[in-house]
């Protein structure tokens, strides 16, 4: 597929790479590959062991340098996806920015605003609406807006889906997800079936 020219950068802010983050990054890498875009995981510690599955995806690059070093000369072409930004991402931002920067942080409830670590670096920020998304969802939505030219409000979302593990145990995921073609939230590594998908608090 022809390159979209877009780069999605996730600045890795957690000390280790947990299984869940690895699944999220793998989803971003595969979707970037399919879209002809690039995915860069930056600020990795020197000792970081890049998982084989990621290494095998040509769109993926592992970087020990931070995003400021990588974009020292083109800071204005980088957009930080920031839940506290004053304006929402719009399709026109695809013309303004070449690279989209995300915090490599697992979501938390309530959010602890760890994206503030990236905000300090001075990149222009855009919000993806008022609800916290997982990192892979944030990249997916950004791609739909800047590459697919879909306005943020027209993306189909599922908020706070409840996953049932068995008859007695379930958990409500405190995040917003993109609704897949099958009507279920897109969640890496989780097989969401009608039997384990419970009540959704909101269908957009
Ligand atoms: C799981 S979120 C981390 C949120 C974290 N709890 C915090 O408070 O910063 C991971 C990344 O996805 C992006 N993100 C998630 N939801 C967003 C939203 N509603 N608007 C803009 N960016 C968002 C941000 O880049 C964020 O650093």
TrEMBL record:
Entry annotated with the keyword Iron: no
InterPro entries assigned to the protein according to its UniProt record, in alphabetical order: SFM1-like
Gene Ontology molecular-function annotations: protein-arginine omega-N monomethyltransferase activity
CDD domains listed in its UniProt record: Arginine_MT_Sfm1
Alphabetic keyword roster: Methyltransferase, Transferase
One family name in Pfam for this protein: SFM1-like
Any GO BP annotation: methylation
Protein's name in the database: SAM-dependent RNA methyltransferase
């Amino acid at each position: 597929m022809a390159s979209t020219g877009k780069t999605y950068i996730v600045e890795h802010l957690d000390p280790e790479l947990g299984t869940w983050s690895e699944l999220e990054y793998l989803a971003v890498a595969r979707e970037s590959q399919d879209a002809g875009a690039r995915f860069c995981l930056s600020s990795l510690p020197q000792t970081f062991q890049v998982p084989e599955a990621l290494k095998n995806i040509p769109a993926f690059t592992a970087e020990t340098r931070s995003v400021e070093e990588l974009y020292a000369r083109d800071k204005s072409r980088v957009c930080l996806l920031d839940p506290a930004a004053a304006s929402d991402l719009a399709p026109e931002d695809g013309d303004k920015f070449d690279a989209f920067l995300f915090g490599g942080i697992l979501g938390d409830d309530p959010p602890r605003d760890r994206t503030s670590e990236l905000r300090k670096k001075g990149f222009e920020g855009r919000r993806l609406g008022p609800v916290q998304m997982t990192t892979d969802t944030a990249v997916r939505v950004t791609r739909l807006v800047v590459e697919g030219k879909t306005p943020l409000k027209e993306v189909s979302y599922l908020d706070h889906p409840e996953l049932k593990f068995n008859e007695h145990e379930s958990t409500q995921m405190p995040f917003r997800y993109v609704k897949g073609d099958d009507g279920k939230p897109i969640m890496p590594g989780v097989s969401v079936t009608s039997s384990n998908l419970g009540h959704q608090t909101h269908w957009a």
